[in-house]
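Help wanted!
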Amino acid sequence: MTELYRGLWVVAYRDILGFLSDRFRIVASLTFPLLFLAIFGAGFSNVIGQMAGGIDIVQFMYPGIIAQVVLTTSLFAGVSIVTDREVGFLREILVAPLSRTGIVLGKAAGAASIALLQVLILLVIAPIVNVPLDVETVLLLVPTVVVLSLVLSGLGIVIGSFARSQQGFQLLMQMLVFPMIFLAGVFFPVDSVPLWMEVASKINPVTYGVDAIRQIFLGSGPAGAGLGVTVLGHTMSLVEELALVGALGAGLVAAAIWAFTRQE
Amino acid sequence: MIDHERSTAMDQADTSAMIDVQQLARRFGELEAVKDVSFAVGEGEVFGFLGPNGAGKTTTISMLTTLLQPSSGRARVNHYDVVRQRSEVRRSIGLVFQQTTLDETLTAEQNLRFHAYAYGVPSDVRERRLRELLSMVELWDRRASKVRTYSGGMKRRLEIARGLLHHPRVLFLDEPTLGLDPQTRRRIWEYLAELRAREGLTIFLTTHYMDEAEQADRIAIIDHGRIVALDSPTGLKSGVGGDMITIATGDGDAAGEEIRSRYGLSPSVADGTVSFHVPAGEAFLPEFVRRFSQPLEAIGLRRPTLDDVFMHLTGREIRDPEGELQAQAPADRMEWRR
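Answered by r_m:
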């Protein structure tokens, strides 16, 4: 038990420390979402203007950008396993008296913490884009970010455990994970796209995590506002979405533990 | 660490040995990387493990350090079984690998702290030990620099310091000075000698450098997965057949005949150069020079080196480029498998 707990915190600690001591990564991780927001916002706002429910495109995109930061940051848990293996540091972790399960949980916890940290920083611009912000929003956001993060870090670790090289990992990412992110409704309401894309988006579990974050910021909103994903006539509530994403996150982390323990 | 755990592991064999290996074997599919290897290393001993690449060195070290499960046989390190008491073994050993295993994006100090946290070193011990070891390897002044900025020699020194941070009983060094300049290699050996004297550390070493292997109390030579010799460096060298004397004269054949008839030796002749083995060269030479009938142009005495021992036992140079290419691939792959 102590080896599980120690594995969890030392691995998380090291990943957070690595993030904090890499200024380029901090700047890049915040610049990209802001650039997206500025460019897409400026580009689309004149074309689309107001969406239903009095929400403008920038307000719609802001929670999506927050979600995207969570998704891409969490993938880093898997990336870091591959990088650590390549530079040899993984061996330092593996020969230490730490449990494999603890190491995986540490990777997931580290990714969730880094994601949370970036989200909290991005909250600063909420007033600038006219997105209401209160204590309740922040309190709801924390667990949502964590469960959504677990989905992607779990998936990343599963792939990272099997990938023997950075190239192999990147390939799997591009085939499997990037479509998941693009089809998750970060940039568009999933109800107002061609049917094939709508179906793909609604099968994609990440969609519900993105929508959960959007509902936290903008409320459930009136019909047609692009809030609350409707599946087979049923509009998902925040609680339902959280339960779904949470269950999936737990399952994928369990799969990650299995994959990592088996491989290493 | 805990007494009752120890006692279960000490049911047989050499109980005083820090490393005790019995009939250890490991297969990778068809390939038998290690076959029936047995040896014991005493406390405070420096034990050299020599062999060409692909001979089974890395596979053996991986099993002893719990990174790889043996196919059969058993091994104990610090009296703990490497399969059943993996955590206790891990806590008992320090490791310095061929390739660096540092996080280069962190500083030297951060790397050492991570290690201390991972091994559960108490905080008061940690800071004292950290300073002591960083001073010993002369990196205290550079402790706040990122490892990325270090030279190869500095990285290796840092790894040695890190491997010792949690007070291991056995230090495993896998080619610890590979690719380092002679000066750095000498410094590293000075640290190791110091630690051995002060902490009674047992050192298990694999190396390609024969002069480095000479530092060992005993050497095991492994070839094709089997131990082909195990003795002190002196003992191994005397097994080769003594010193080699080489003389140059005008008439090689005549000189060869004279040596053959007078001493009953079988010299090898190449043009005017004759060479032969005698047990003790220094005592032999004065008498030989006095009695030799032909004019001597040159005379040479060479003591056997471990290279000769190696050549004698395996029929190969220790750095066999062919063997390296053949064996490297499976060895690399298996390090990550369990």
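OP: Thanks! One thing I noticed: Residues 182-199 of chain B form the longest helix (18 residues).
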